Amino acid sequence: MAQAVEMFFDDQADQKVRRLWEILADHGLPSLATLTHRRHRPHVSLTVAETLNEADLDDLRSALTQQPPALNLDFLGTFPGAEGVLFAGVAATTELLAFHRRIHAALPSHRIKHWPYYFPDKWIPHCTLAIGLNRTELSEAMDVLHGFEPIAAAVSSIGITETTTGTVTPLLPSGTPVRHPPAEDREG
């Protein structure tokens, strides 16, 4: 079991990522849409921990009062190792990295056992497309998605996702809007 603080996308960006998942499936490849509980939503994780039950959610919600930065999914990537992860990489803007640091400052490491890849200065912002690909599948998936159009995303909500069930606990108070950049600023 693990829990993740995740940023979810506006409808247009969400649909574009889901289309990438469909393209993988159309070619007989696994994607996040077909993994585990099948309730995954396109997202960027800010941190993942074994549990966030000891987290001070008031501090975290306070850190979330500032507008989340726009996200630009600009490239395909993979992580080293045998996990076979394919992702859409997010441009690591100054605003995004500062936002990420604020979230981690609100979740002190002495109370939360963060997964090391999500620490500031180690974090690679990304939107997972597939996990568990073997070498042949990873190569095929890169080939199938080669030339994908970058995706501009606004953050529509932020929540804590229980990774084994896909259940999301919203972090922003109900009815609190997440401001979006004007549509013309989000166009690719």
Describe it.
The protein is α+β, with helices and mostly antiparallel strands and 188 residues long. The chain has one domain: Cyclic phosphodiesterase (Cyclic Phosphodiesterase, Chain: A), CATH 3.90.1140. Helix content is 27%, strand content 24%. It contains 5 helices and 8 strands. A 4-stranded antiparallel beta sheet has the order 2-1-7-8. A hairpin with a 7-residue loop joins strand 3 (71-78) and strand 4. Helix 2 (57-63) runs antiparallel to helix 3 (94-106). The longest helix is centred in the first third of the chain and has 16 residues, at 11-26. The chain is globular and about 45 Å long. Mean pLDDT is 87; it is low at 173-188.
Strand and helix layout:
Elements: E1 3-9, H1 11-26, E2 43-49, H2 57-63, E3 71-78, E4 86-90, H3 94-106, E5 126-130, H4 135-145, E6 151-153, E7 155-162, E8 168-170, H5 183-186
Antiparallel strand pairs: 1-2, 1-7, 3-4, 3-6, 4-5, 7-8
Helix pairs in contact: 2-3
